[in-house]
UniProtKB/TrEMBL annotation:
The keyword Kinase applies. Residues 1-21 are annotated as: Disordered. It catalyses: ATP + protein L-histidine = ADP + protein N-phospho-L-histidine. This is Blue-light-activated histidine kinase. It is an enzyme of class 2 (transferase). Residues 1-11 have a biased composition (Basic and acidic residues). It comes from Rhizobium ruizarguesonis. Keywords: ATP-binding, Chromophore, Flavoprotein, FMN, Kinase, Nucleotide-binding, Phosphoprotein, Photoreceptor protein, Receptor, Repeat, Sensory transduction, Transferase, Virulence. The keyword Oxidoreductase does not apply.
Length: 345
């Protein structure tokens, strides 16, 4: 930390401490950082590529690396062939926006062994408000995931399938059929993130008692994790019935992932604008998805599986229409959802 004045950075005050402990809090914090069983690192946000400047013993034990192999490197050395690019895109967006994020990502130890990492990143700002460091903590979720999978399997056998299952299972069936990856872990990750998008929509429906859902609320739920401060939302209050929510949630998720990985949000100056309005007939609604600064794809580019899924959800599930247009400014997508699937208020 040479060259960075110490007085510009002050740690958070303990939530509970005696006067004696408060006097020694800096030394106690250093001891706790090193002795805790939770892996932790600190990266320097003022230097290019976010190099690691601190790492505790638990982090070295988890990753199997030595201290000299870790210091000065970006944490991406823990990524590997089956690491989800969606999770990586979410992490990059959080770092760019200087905000906290918690995400599960498949990482690799020095030996090549995989482990599921529940990563939490938190920015550290100086007294002048400028970003100085990022604090990262990790939890090895590998064994928990294995047990959770076993419990989930038993639970699924005991669950009573209700009348809403057919629609949801039809969407999941589309996800499984249309998702693709040469690596089994990447294939699993692609399905997992899409099912998680459905789960978030399901949680929203449950919280609203399976009644009408705000279109804006659903759009923000699915898009904000990837766009954060670089997205503009605008439109009137439009309510949707429950059957529309999950198919549309998957459409929005796919568009957001594509924008973060290949489109405008992958570019430093890229921007995303999403607007919506009732259809001219007064029944149903239209969504306009506009990416400014998105790289133009090759003219003979093959349709990605995300594009296939979006088309299937809009045309088959929502009985709607989708039109995609490229211009010098970027990408424009118009989505039309008919009256049979929505109601406006």
């Amino acid at each position: 930390m040479t060259g960075h004045p110490r007085e510009k950075l002050h740690g958070d005050l303990p939530s509970a401490s005696s006067k004696a402990a408060s006097a020694d809090r800096k030394e106690l914090a250093a001891i706790a950082f090193e002795r805790t069983r939770m892996p932790m690192v600190v990266t320097d946000a003022r230097k290019s590529d976010q190099p690691i400047v601190l790492g505790n013993k638990a982090f070295l034990e988890l990753t199997e690396y030595a201290a000299e192999e870790v210091l000065g490197r970006n944490c991406r050395f823990l990524q590997g062939p089956a690491t989800s690019p969606i999770a990586v895109a979410a992490i990059r967006a959080a770092i760019a926006d200087e905000r906290e994020i918690s995400v599960e990502i498949l990482n690799y130890k020095r030996s090549g062994a995989q482990f599921w990492n529940r990563l939490h990143l938190s920015p550290i700002h100086g007294d002048d408000g400028r970003i100085q460091y990022f604090f990262g903590s990790q939890i090895d979720m590998t064994e928990y995931r294995r047990i959770e999978a076993l419990e989930a399997s038993e639970h699924r056998l005991l669950m009573e399938v209700d009348h809403r299952s057919k629609n949801v299972l039809a969407i999941v069936d589309s996800i499984v059929r249309l998702s693709n990856a040469d690596d089994p872990a990447l294939y699993a990750a692609a399905i997992q993130h899409r099912v998680q998008a459905l789960a978030r929509a399901h949680t929203l429906l449950a919280a609203r008692g399976w009644t009408s859902i705000s279109l804006e609320e659903l759009i923000r739920q699915q898009v904000t994790p990837f766009a954060a401060t670089r997205a503009i939302f605008s439109g009137p209050d439009i309510r949707m019935p429950a059957p529309v929510v999950q198919p549309l949630a998957l459409v929005l998720h796919e568009l957001a992932v594509n924008a973060a990985h290949h489109g405008a949000l992958a570019a430093a100056q890229g921007r995303l604008s999403i607007s919506w309005k009732p259809r001219p007939s007064g029944a149903g609604f239209n969504i306009r998805w506009q990416e400014v600064g998105a790289p133009t794809p090759p003219k003979l580019a093959k349709r990605g599986f995300g594009t296939v899924i979006v088309g299937a959800m809009v045309e088959k599930q929502l009985k709607g229409r989708l039109e995609k247009t490229w211009s010098d400014e970027g990408l424009l997508i118009d989505i039309e959802v008919p009256s049979a699937c929505s109601s406006s208020v």
